[in-house]
Amino acid sequence: MAHEDPPAGEGLAAFQRRYWAAWDACDLEATAECLDADFSGTFAGPAGQAVLVLGRAETLAMVAAFFARVRGERASWRRSGLLPLHRGGDEAAVAMRVECRFPDHPAWDNAELTVETYRRGVDGRWRLWRAHSERLR
Fold this sequence. Notes:
seven-stranded mixed sheet; 3 helices; 25% helix; 137 residues
């Protein structure tokens, strides 16, 4: 799928809309374009599951597997608490609860608490720099 380059002066809210639209569409290429080259993520599940600390390539592999599993399935996403906390002109963090429901596969439903940190590059574009997710179910 071909993508237009985002505007260099794209605001954080516009970036978040573009990033989540890519995620909701299971569009790996567009999602990858939203991750910083130095992206790192920490992903934790319920007790007894490993805590994963992944770089950009490993995270994209995990996302690709998720997209392959859910592509074409009915899903509804709900994100709450999307108020960004700016940490200087070129960084912002957002704490949110993310829920995904699959009406045809209730066992796939999940919810997590996530803190995402964004930074604006020298090209003026925001990208997801770090993510810390704690899976609730």
